[in-house]
Amino acid sequence: MMPPLTGKTIILGVTGSIAAYKAADLVGALRRDGADVFVIMTREATHFIGPMTLQTLSRNPVAVDLWEEHKGWHPGHIELADRADLFLVAPATAHTIACFAHGLAPDLLTSAYLATPAPVMVAPAMNGKMYRHPATEANLRTLRERGHAIVEPEEGMLACGYEGIGRLAQIDAVVAAVHAHVQNSG
Ligand SMILES: Cc1cc2nc3c(=O)[nH]c(=O)nc-3n(C[C@H](O)[C@H](O)[C@H](O)COP(=O)(O)O)c2cc1C
């Protein structure tokens, strides 16, 4: 039997959360399930995990900088965003969620978000106080109203030392959400 995500192109946005290292397992799982995964990292994410790690695991180039993309008239990752089956961001910081909600495009990931016609799925990860802040709640509401899928974070011990909501959903739960999305979209 063919792996369930065979033939699907997934853009995986990775942002500057302490949970960014978990993106390595996510890339591995999506690839194992047959997806072609293209990673776009924010500059901040590179403090937490090296682009080379995600490039090796995804077996595709990893893009970070808007200004390094000089493949002619259509920058490569924007072109990719145009034909992706899913635009997934995991982990998604409060900052990137705010950019998405407000249409701000200061970097490649946020620019690709505005450029993609693909369905969007966001897995937030942050300190519980950031997650429960009215600004973040309003931004997530905006994304839900826009039809984006939110993979809810978990309760538990957070890397910042607090106990509470905001820990990135288990990688298995993110992968299950991707499978469900792909099944629903045919
Ligand atoms: C050690 C450390 C851990 C962080 N973890 C998170 C996090 O889990 N979630 C979050 O929203 N911001 C976190 N931040 C703050 C973000 O890195 C910061 O808001 C950054 O501007 C996000 O940029 P980006 O959304 O472009 O990746 C962390 C910062 C540091 C220094």
Order of helices and strands: EHEHHEHHEHHEEEH
Q: Rg, please?
A: 15 Å
Q: What is the terminal separation in angstroms?
A: 17 Å
User: Which whole number gives the mean pLDDT?
Assistant: 92
What topology does this entry show?
Elements: E1 9-14, H1 23-32, E2 36-41, H2 51-58, H3 76-83, E3 86-92, H4 94-102, H5 108-115, E4 120-124, H6 128-132, H7 134-145, E5 149-150, E6 154-157, E7 163-167, H8 171-185
Parallel strand pairs: 1-2, 1-3, 3-4, 4-5
Antiparallel strand pairs: 6-7
Helix pairs in contact: 1-2, 1-8, 3-5, 4-7
Describe the structure.
This protein has 186 residues and is α/β, with parallel strands linked by helices. It is 40% helix and 19% strand. It contains 8 helices and 7 strands; from the N terminus they run βαβααβααβααβββα. Helix 1 (23-32) links the parallel strand 1 (9-14) and strand 2 (36-41). Helix 1 (23-32) packs parallel to helix 2 (51-58), helix 3 (76-83) runs parallel beside helix 5 and helix 4 crosses helix 7. The longest helix is centred in the C-terminal third of the chain and has 15 residues, at 171-185. The model has no long low-confidence stretch (mean pLDDT 92). The protein binds flavin mononucleotide. Residues 15-19, 42, 44-45, 93-96, 125-126, 130 line the site of flavin mononucleotide (FMN). Flavin mononucleotide (FMN) is lined by residues 15-19, 42, 44-45, 93-96, 125-126, 130.
